[in-house]
């Protein structure tokens, strides 16, 4: 039983293809990160079967996909790849964090949801969904910076490229209030291994409480289904009971709880 590492997404796909295809929901974060990851890893059992995967990105942030607890506890990363933060299913994250012997603190608890049958809000919220456009970029950059701060993600100096890619591919949706002003946004990932993930769900503070998050999430969900996704997923902040209740009402069901932790390096 051992971990293997590469920086080549093609090598990773070839090695972990069966595991990624068998567990697309639990591996959603790794699937959507792997082409831009700085490190990719997979765990093989005694018979050579892959049963765990991970991806490392700048910051440095390590993300677990579906990883057995024993694999997480046995993980020894290549020199220089030790993470400042780690995210993944709670039991695996706690196993790795405990095995390192490093001090660590929880950053946030999140829950992975999977769509059952979409149940749009009835009556629909006022306004309408439309594709995001380049003219929206200044506002969307501000919203994304606020979203990152609220969810305690590593901040970026500029979100223009991040958002432009989603706009160009038609994957970013804006909810307009009845008077035409942008009020909320949501994005959807590319569909990979039959799964797509709704993310970046954000309502402008002054517009909250009007159902706009439900409207734009429904629009993003429909777009994911139209793209051919067999499984539509999203993550919620466990500390936000409003969003957790909203997604349940829209037809999403819990899959697994995840934990994000921050490590304190040894002196």
Helical fraction equals 25-40%
Mean pLDDT: 95
What structural category do the secondary elements indicate?
alpha+beta
Q: Which residue ranges are poorly predicted, with pLDDT under 50 across at least 5 consecutive positions?
A: none
What is the terminal separation in angstroms?
32 Å
Helix segment tally: 8
| H and E string | EHHEEEHEHEEHHEEEHEHE
Description:
- The protein is α+β, with helices and mostly antiparallel strands and 267 residues long.
- It starts with a strand and ends with a strand.
- It is 31% helix and 31% strand.
- The chain has a 12-stranded mixed β-sheet with strand order 1-2-3-4-5-12-6-11-10-9-8-7, sandwiched between helices.
Short description:
With 267 residues, the chain is an alpha+beta fold. The protein is built from 8 helices and 12 strands. The chain is globular and about 60 Å long.
Relevant terms:
single chain; alpha+beta; 12-stranded mixed β-sheet
């Amino acid at each position: 039983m051992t971990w293997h590492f590469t920086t080549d997404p093609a090598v990773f796909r070839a090695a972990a293809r069966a595991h990624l295809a068998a567990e697309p929901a639990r591996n959603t974060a790794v699937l959507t990160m792997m082409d831009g990851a700085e490190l990719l890893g997979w765990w093989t059992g005694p018979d050579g079967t892959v049963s765990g995967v991970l991806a490392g990105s700048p910051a440095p942030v390590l993300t677990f996909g579906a990883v057995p607890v024993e694999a997480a506890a046995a993980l020894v990363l290549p020199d220089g790849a030790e993470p400042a933060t780690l995210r993944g299913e709670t039991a695996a994250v706690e196993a790795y964090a405990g095995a390192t012997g490093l001090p660590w603190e929880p950053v946030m608890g999140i829950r992975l949801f999977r769509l059952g049958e979409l149940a749009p809000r009835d009556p629909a919220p006022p306004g309408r969904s439309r594709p995001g456009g380049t003219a929206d970029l200044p506002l969307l950059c501000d919203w994304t910076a606020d979203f990152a701060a609220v969810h305690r993600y590593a901040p970026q100096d500029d979100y223009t490229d991040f958002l432009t890619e989603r706009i160009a591919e038609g994957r970013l949706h804006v909810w307009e209030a009845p008077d035409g002003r942008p009020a909320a946004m949501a994005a959807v990932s590319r569909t990979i291994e039959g799964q797509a993930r709704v993310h970046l769900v954000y309502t402008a503070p002054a517009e909250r409480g009007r159902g706009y998050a439900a409207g734009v999430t429904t629009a993003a969900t429909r777009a994911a289904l139209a793209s051919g996704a067999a499984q539509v997923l999203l993550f919620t902040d466990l500390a936000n009971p409003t969003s957790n209740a909203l997604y349940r009402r829209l037809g999403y069901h819990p899959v697994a709880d995840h934990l994000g932790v921050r490590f304190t390096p040894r002196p």
